[in-house]
Amino acid sequence: MRRLVRLAVLIALAVWAWRFFLGRNEPLERATVAYEDGSAVVVEPGSPGFERLAATARTALR
Amino acid sequence: MDVAQALAELTELSSQVRRAVVLDAEGALVGSTGEDSGAAESLARAARDLVEAAADLRGSGSAVTRVEVELEEGAVFVLREGERTIAATTGPEPTAGLVAYDLRTCLKGISESEPEKPKRRRAPRKTKADEGTGE
C-alpha cells in the first residue's frame, strides 16, 4: 500500500513538472476571430494576418 | 442602463478589464471607462482596425462578431452585437471566456435599456368606395 501511494505521488510530481517546464513552450500569442455564421479562426504567430492583428492590438495596449 | 453605467458595472465586475470602450454602428465612440479620452480614442480606432483586419482574413461573407488578440503584454477583445461594439484591454493571459462573457453582458445591459424605435403605421387602404367618392 505504501509503495502504491509513493508511486501515485511520483506520477503526480512528474505530471506537474512536465506541465510546468514544457507547457510554457506553447505560444503565448494568438488571435481568435469569430464570425456571424458561427465559424471561428485561430491565428498564431507566423500565420498570414497575425502580424496585422498583433500590431493593431499593440497600439491599444500602449 | 446607459452606456456609462454599464461600463462602470463592467469594471466593477471584471477585475481583468483595464480599459473598455463602446462604439455605435458607425464606429463612433459612445462611451469609455476612465478619463483619458486619448486612450479611449486609441482603443476605439484599434477596435475598428481589428474588425477590418479580421474581415480581411476571410475575404467575404459573414460579419465579424468577435476578435481576441492575446499578446505577451496583454490582450485586446472586440465584441459586436447588434449595432453596438465593445472593445476592452486586459493584462497578459486573461481568462478569455470570462472576459468575453462580461463584455457581452455589458452590451446586453446597454441594448436592453434602449427604447424601441416607434413603428411606422401604415396608412389605411383605400377601398373602392373611397375611390368612387374621390371622382
Describe this structure in words.
The complex is a heterodimer of chains A (62) and B (135). Chain A has 62 residues and is α+β, with helices and mostly antiparallel strands. Chain A has helices spanning 2-22, 50-61, and strands at 30-35, 40-43. In chain A, β1 and β2 (40-43) form a beta hairpin. The model of chain A has no long low-confidence stretch (mean pLDDT 89). Chain B is of the alpha+beta class. Chain B has helices spanning 3-13, 37-58, 96-113, 128-134, and strands at 17-23, 29-32, 64-71, 74-81, 84-90. A 5-stranded antiparallel sheet of chain B has the order 2-1-5-4-3, with helices on both faces.
Brief account:
With 62 residues, chain A is of the alpha+beta class. Chain A is built from two helices and two strands; from the N terminus they run αββα.
Number of strands of chain B: 5
CA gyration radius of chain B, whole angstroms = 21 Å
Radius of gyration of chain A: 20 Å
Fraction of residues in β-strands of chain B: 25-35%
Largest sheet of chain A: 2 strands, antiparallel
Figure out the total of helices of chain B: 4
* Shape annotation of chain B: globular
Q: Any low-confidence stretches of chain B, pLDDT <50, length ≥5?
A: none
What is the residue-averaged pLDDT of chain A? 89
Chain-wise SSE layout:
The complex is a heterodimer of chains A (62) and B (135).
Chain A: H1 2-22, E1 30-35, E2 40-43, H2 50-61
Antiparallel strand pairs in A: 1-2
Chain B: H1 3-13, E1 17-23, E2 29-32, H2 37-58, E3 64-71, E4 74-81, E5 84-90, H3 96-113, H4 128-134
Features:
heterodimer, A: 62 residues, alpha+beta, two-stranded antiparallel sheet, 16% strand, B: 135 residues, five-stranded antiparallel beta sheet, 5 strands, globular
